[in-house]
C-alpha cells in the first residue's frame, strides 16, 4: 500500500513592517489656521468699513445759488438743492410725492428756499431736456416751474429717447405760458443753453454728485431724499438751532 505523502505545511512569510502612512493632520491644522486668519481679517475689515461709513460726515459743498431756478423766500434760513435729470424715474417720484409736502409745509411759509440744478447724465436727451429748461428759465423765470412739472408729468421711459427737441417744443407750447416760441426754437437749434447746462454739470461734479436725485440741505448732502419724515425732522432740527 502506498503511503500518502505528508504535506509540508506552507511557511507563512515573515511580516515585514512597511512604511506607516503619513498623517494629514498637520496639513489640516495648517489650512484651518489659515482659513481662520483670513476669515478674521474679512470680518474685521467689514466691521471697520461699516464703522467708518457710520461715522463719516455727509458731503458738504459751499453752493453759489446765483442764477439757479428757485422757489421760496431769499430770506429762508434753510436752502435746499436738488440735482436732477428729467429722464430719471426717481426724480419724478421726488417731484410728485415728496416735493409737494416740502412746499406746503416749509417753502410756502418762508422757512425753506428750494433750488433745482441740472445733472443730466442718463442719456443725450437728458441734456436736451435740461437745455429746454434753461431756455424757458432765461425767458420767464416763473414759467420754469411749469416746464419742470410738465416734463415729469409726461416723462417717458428711462431707456427710450423721448426728450427730443420736437417733443419738448410741443410740451412748452401746450403747458408753459408767456414763452416766445420762435426764440425758443431758434435757441434750441443754435444750442444756446449748452454752456449753462455744462456749468450745472461742473457744480454737480464738484459737489460729488453721482446719481439723481441728490439733495443738499444747507450745503450738506441728505441721503434720505424719498423719506419726507426724515426731511421734515432735519428741517425742524435746523429751525430749532436757528431759533426759528
**CATH-derived architecture:** 3-Layer(aba) Sandwich
Q: Give the beta-strand count.
A: 5
CATH class: Alpha Beta
CATH homology superfamily name:
Glutaredoxin
Radius of gyration from CA coordinates:
35 Å
CATH topology: Glutaredoxin
Strand fraction: 5-15%
Biggest beta-sheet profile:
5 strands, mixed
Shape: globular
Q: Termini separation (Å)?
A: 136 Å
Tally of contiguous helical segments: 8
Mean pLDDT: 87
Describe the protein's architecture and organization.
- This protein is of the alpha+beta class.
- It has one domain (70-242): Glutaredoxin (3-Layer(aba) Sandwich).
- Helices cover 51% and strands 9% of the residues.
- The chain has eight helices and five strands; from the N terminus they run αββαβαααααββα.
- The chain has a five-stranded mixed β-sheet.
- Helix 2 links the parallel strand 2 (78-84) and strand 3 (112-118).
- Helix 2 packs parallel to helix 8 (228-242).
- The protein is globular, with a radius of gyration of 35 Å.
- The model is unreliable at 1-17 and 42-54 (pLDDT under 50).
- Residues 1-21 are annotated as: Disordered.
- Residues 1-19 have a biased composition (Basic residues).
- Keywords: Disulfide bond, Membrane, Oxidoreductase, Redox-active center, Signal, Transmembrane, Transmembrane helix.
- This is Disulfide dehydrogenase.
- Residues 47-240 form the Thioredoxin domain.
Task: Give a brief outline of the structure.
By secondary structure, this protein is of the alpha+beta class.
